[in-house]
Design goal:
The protein is α/β, with parallel strands linked by helices. It folds into 2 domains: 208 residues, Rossmann fold (3-Layer(aba) Sandwich), CATH 3.40.50; 161 residues, 3-Layer(aba) Sandwich (Rossmann fold), CATH 3.40.50.2300. The chain is 41% helix and 19% strand. The strands form 3 sheets. The chain has a 7-stranded mixed sheet with strand order 7-6-8-9-10-14-15, sandwiched between helices. A 5-stranded parallel sheet has the order 2-1-3-4-5, with helices on both faces. It has a 3-stranded antiparallel sheet with strand order 11-12-13, covered by helices on one side. Strand 11 and strand 12 form a beta hairpin. The chain is globular, with a radius of gyration of 23 Å. The chain starts with a helix and ends in an 18-residue tail after the last strand. The relative contact order is 0.12.
């Protein structure tokens, strides 16, 4: 009896242990992606909404073209927009042997991740991973010396956006006020905007050039006063999140009667901050908007955007991210396994049609996505409005992908094994 009792206890304990361990089948059914972004702090809204967008895209790609008949799964990590926090998250990702790390918000964070991924992959060849850059935009990140074999940027660079921004400024604009965030992205934007103003619009005078502390300014009234006194006809800004929304609100409150020629006013909160006064004088440089499929008569894209709009109260901001997961699924399937070296090699030079039928290319030389850009005008004359404001984005200019293929200084070092 004593022996049978001991045996029963041992068997029960063994079953408990086995029940707590995921089965091999369950583990092999998913391909995990460690997703690092700010999910707390001033920019938490961006992180939270981007997560919703990514999950929507993943559900769509998992249904249409699952990699190796597996499913992508996101595992989130909060970096609070701090490079140090992102590196801690990266260590947790590598400890769990995830093959991919993804990050969208903050070129300061991206700079740290590029170095962190490179060091990990050199020291731990059996635990290498690919960095999917989905929105850290500084031009420097895909140029020397930061460009890296393990980083792929699935979004346009600052340089690409600045070219589109300056190229589409109206001929009557002769005086602009630049205001950007005081960190690597804002400085990159300021540099490339001024560069293209000099090249494409030497007739324009920069009457103000301002940097604001990232996420720290609560009252933009003093900045608005300086803009008003400068005689600017247009405010050209790459601010995003609260740094853009609070600027626009202060401008409306002060009755600032100028154009807002922005880079990111199509992201959440900006149109609400502007309200009706922003109509027909606010533009944004974007990779898509929800009215484009109807303007171009593309039923498949109409269906995709309509499905997103049904479940979300903000505009879909991630057309290149659809391309990202489609390319990644193809690269994994072609590799025949989750071999990150083979997957990275497959991604190089890959082309993919986007939702609007345009070809996007992952350039081999620097792992920069080459894609078209659109200028949207905030107006009432649209099918879909933004954030219930009655205003939405109408496409008034298109910059084809071939015009967006900028030179690169990257000297890519590729692993041989």
């Amino acid at each position: 009896m004593r022996f049978r009792g001991i045996l029963a206890a041992l068997c029960g304990g063994l079953l408990s242990i086995l029940a707590a361990v995921p089965t091999a089948t369950a583990a092999e059914d998913t391909i995990k992606i460690g997703y690092i972004d700010p999910f707390s702090g001033p920019f938490a809204q961006s992180g939270d909404q981007f997560l919703q967008v990514m999950q929507f895209i993943i559900d769509d790609v998992n249904a249409r073209m699952p990699p190796l008949n597996k499913k992508f799964e996101l595992v989130t990590f909060d970096d609070k927009l701090q490079p140090s926090e992102a590196l801690i998250a990266l260590k947790r990702i590598t400890d769990q042997n995830m093959p991919f790390v993804m990050q969208c918000v903050g070129s300061n964070v991206a700079t740290a991740l590029i170095g962190g991924v490179e060091k990990n992959n050199e020291r731990n060849p059996d635990r290498r991973l690919i960095y999917l850059n989905c929105g850290a935009l500084a031009t420097e990140l895909t140029n020397a010396p930061l460009c890296n074999f393990w980083q792929f940027r699935f979004s346009g660079s600052v340089e690409q956006r600045a070219y589109a921004r300056v190229k589409t400024l109206p001929a009557e604009v002769k005086k602009v006020y630049l205001i950007n965030q005081d960190y690597v992205f804002g400085h990159s934007m300021e540099h490339d905007t001024k560069r293209f103003l000099k090249e494409l619009r030497p007739d324009i005078e920069v009457v103000g050039d301002e940097f604001v502390p990232l996420g720290k300014v609560k009252d933009f009234a003093p900045y608005v006063t300086k803009i008003k006194n400068s005689g600017a006809q247009s405010v050209v800004t790459a601010n995003y999140g609260p740094d853009l929304n609070l600027l626009l609100k202060a401008a409306v409150d002060a009755g600032l009667n100028v154009r807002f020629d922005t880079y990111l006013a199509h992201l959440t909160g900006a149109v609400t901050a502007l309200g009706p006064s922003g109509a027909d004088r606010t533009t944004s440089i974007m990779e898509q908007n929800e009215n484009l499929p109807y303007e171009l008569n593309i039923p498949a894209a109409e269906k995709f955007y309509a499905a997103f709009r049904k479940g979300h109260k903000f505009d879909f901001p991630g057309q290149p991210w659809v391309v990202m997961f489609e390319m990644l699924s193809r690269a994994i399937t072609e590799a025949g396994s989750v071999d990150v070296l083979k997957i990275a090699q497959n991604l190089e030079g890959m082309q993919q049609k986007d939702l609007l039928g345009k070809t996007e290319t992952m350039r081999k030389a620097d792992h920069q996505l080459i894609l078209p850009y659109y200028e949207g005008l905030l107006t009432k004359d649209v099918k879909f409005d933004t954030e219930g404001t009655g205003l939405g984005w109408k496409t008034i200019a298109t910059i084809p992908a071939e015009q967006e293929e900028m030179p690169t200084t990257c000297k890519m070092k590729r692993p041989t094994s």
